[in-house]
Amino acid sequence: MDDSRFPFLDGVAGVLVDGGGRILDCTAAAEALLALPIGVLRGRPVRELLAGPLEPEDPLEPAGAARAAEPQEEREVGAAWAGRVSVRAGDGRLLDLEVRLLALRSAAGGERAAARYVVLGAPSATADRWRQDQAFTRELFLQDRFGLVVFDRDLRIVRTNTHLLPYSGMPITLSGRRLADFLQPSDAAAVEQHLREVMETGKPLVLAEELARTVIDPRGGRMMAISAFRLQGADGEVIGLTALFNDITEQYRTRRRLALLHQVTAASGRSLSVTDSANQLAEALIGSFADVVVVEVAAAVFSGAEPTPDPNGRLLLRRTAVAGPPESAPPVGNTVLVGPDGETVLVGPDGREEIGGLGDLAEPWQITAPLTARGVLLGRISARRDRWKDAYEEEDRALLREVAARAGLSLDNARRYTREHRAAIGLQRSLLPPAVRSVAAVSTASVYLPTDTIGGVGGDWFDVIPLSSARVALVVGDVTGHGLHASATMGRLRTAVRTLADLDLEPDELLVHLDDLVAQLLVEAALAADDEEDEEADGLHPSRYGVVAEPVTEEGGARRSGPEAASFGGTCLYAVYDPVARTCTVASAGHPPPAVAHPDGSTEFLPVVPGPPLGVGGLPFESVRVLLEPGSVLALYTDGLIERGEGDIDAGMAELTRRLTVVLAQELPLPEAGQRIIAGLPPTRLQDDVTLLLARTKAVAAADTAVWSVEPEPAAVAKVREDATTTLEAWGLAELAFTTELVLSELVTNAIRYAGGPVVVRLIRADTLTCEVSDGSSTQPRMRRARLTDEGGRGLYLVAQLTNRWGSRYTASGKTIWTEQELPGG
Question: What span, in angstroms and rounded, lies between the C-alpha atoms of 435 and 458?
């Protein structure tokens, strides 16, 4: 017998038996199984191969075989015999075989001895495995938890355990159909692409996720995990493939919800801006979860305050962020009133109220969740889907509530940051002078651009301090660090500079005193930090007794609320401009040099040699004096303007001079010029605060000054009064002549009496009338309270009462006492 004609009998031993039970022929598999060659088997009775005695009804006996071969119509159904027998192989082994007897020819109408039979046998273990495979395949197609589909080479369905119900509008059976006959074209194409790859490469597909939507219901569909393997015949020819479709819609939706929750949490907490947080929240939800998302935030949140309802229990919300198609999304900026029961009242631009909400689409295609934190309602978020999509389920509502809860915390953090940031900026701006100012020496305009980092505002500051004799001090500085501590330190340093400036110190000498002050602050900060550590080590920290509430870090430890020592360091540049001499004296403590734009259009940096930063101590500072023409523009700035987080400082300084040249060539007012210079520096790109102070120099004409040398004799006082009156009349200030005579008489008399000569008197007409008396003594005058019996001691008191300001300053040759009087007409 040729086995190749029956490939489906692979592994089965076949024996051809005549009606008398003798072997006529056998297959090669039978020779191998029985360990006997065909020559030995031919003509041998089958019963001789059996290991046990023959039963009378044994189908292998001639009578039994004849009975089994009776015509079907003459015997009972199932008379063909199948069972197990024990056979002794040629090598002595006992074999348990599963045997089936098949009649090749009916005995009806012919000789019974002429009948032939085929005996098929296989080892019992092999037959058991076949039965297991058959049972597995049968049960596999009976499963309803996953879909099993057998495809042919053209990806047509051959067999499947999946039957679509009649009410779905699809045929009951799928045999002979393609996926595109009942799935959406795009979904069918995606699945078939995977199946073709399996068919071509033979590489199994494992749990590939694809969406399956029917042509009747193109909504959400079901998410399927697809596994597939190729089917090959015994000769290796590809005959098709088998695919398993497992419905993982719920697991997929759960994963998507968790991923969306993580994405929204990260997006809403990425910014400390209320508007940015709302926009990022809306953008994160758009797409798979919603087609239109609206985030409405309480109006009070934008100012950092906690929202409170009105007397009717309604809360004013501002439509802050909207995501979705423009034709479907409501406009941003509208305000709505939300009542305690959730009803919505739209407030139009004209203040009129009308009932309305997100749209006319109600549940279950629209859901809303409140944005709350610490029990306070901060706003609400609404999501909407188109009607042709799946409606929202309870899991979606729970997800939106969880999203709103997390977004509410982020929104509350943004609200708190806004409040603290506004407080810090408000403190800093309150410590700074007016942005635009004009004095006799200069006209100034300033620009302050705070950074938008987590640390808050920095310690940048500037000042314009009027000095005696129509001079002005221009100051700019930068305190290390950010936040309220830096702002507070800036205020202390600015106050210190003003106090030192009132002493009319030279710039380098003033920086020495300021540096000494900062060094002392650093020492005090270090001692305070040591004391705090000692208190914590001893368990005596005030927070243990409820005196101080310590903020807690992410690690769970207490974070010090006090300033660090580094918060007191910084840089400072101090410049004094004299409009009479037209000179500018500058000294720097670690600060970049000022730029100057001359009237002829050229720009340069003043040749200032920066000294060490404030707080180093023990090192001198150097002043430089330059001559400036009237109309020159000085630009004092902090390093945030020239660093900007990109490139080196030299490139930033070159860019500053370029912008300064271009802007001033347009002859713009100083405030507008300052805005143009810092244009293109949005707060979100700044690494540090930016401060820019522009000062356009003025000059006091020679005709507005008068100088006399006075002989150190009492009789010279009368001459001084006479010359002063003449000068004031020439200047049109005769109203001030009497007061000026009294002031000069007192000051010149004291100079002659206590200092001797030489004595110099100078009058300056600028925005005020300045009277100066200079002598060679370094003894500073002081005003004292004279008793009734005292003959003197009332002169400086009279001077202080008759003038607006008075003071004294050291000079290279002695001192100068000065007074100021307002000009007539203010």
Answer: 18
Q: Is the pTM of this model over 0.70?
A: no
Q: Enter the tokens of residue 430.
A: 């309150």
What CA–CA distance (Å, rounded) separates 500 from 516? Answer: 12
**Of 776, 780, 759, which is closest to residue 707 (Cα–Cα)?**
759
pLDDT at 766: 92
Opening angle at CA 281, ends 276 and 283, nearest 5: 95
Rounded to whole angstroms, how far apart are CA atoms 720 and 27? Answer: 148
Average pLDDT, the chain: 79
Q: Are strands 353-355 and 436-438 parallel, antiparallel or unpaired?
A: unpaired
Pairing of strands 222-232, 238-247: antiparallel
Residue type, position 539, single letter? G
* Cβ-Cβ contacts under 8 Å for 367 (sequence gap 6 or more): 382, 383, 392, 396, 397, 400
Q: Helices (H), strands (E): how many in the chain?
A: 16, 33
User: What would the pLDDT profile of 114-158 be if each residue is shown by its tens digit?
Assistant: 578 888 888 888 888 888 877 777 777 777 677 888 899 888 988
Is there a contact between 267 and 280 (Cβ–Cβ < 8 Å)? yes
Q: Map out the domains of the chain with their CATH numbers.
A: 3-132 (3.30.450.20), 143-247 (3.30.450.20), 253-423 (3.30.450.40), 435-540+565-697 (3.60.40.10), 703-822 (3.30.565.10)
Structure token pair of residue 718 = 């009368």
Residue 293's nearest CA partner among 351, 197, 359 is 359
**Residue 681 and residue 385: Cα distance in Å, rounded?**
40
Amino acid at 16: L
State the Cα–Cα distance between residues 639 and 573, nearest whole angstrom: 12
Neighbouring C-beta atoms of residue 422, cutoff 10 Å: 13
DSSP secondary structure code for residue 220 in this structure? S
User: What are the residues whose beta carbons fall under 8 Å from the beta carbon of 258, sequence distance 6 or more?
Assistant: none
For residue 814, how many C-alpha atoms fall within 13 Å in the half-sphere facing its CB?
18
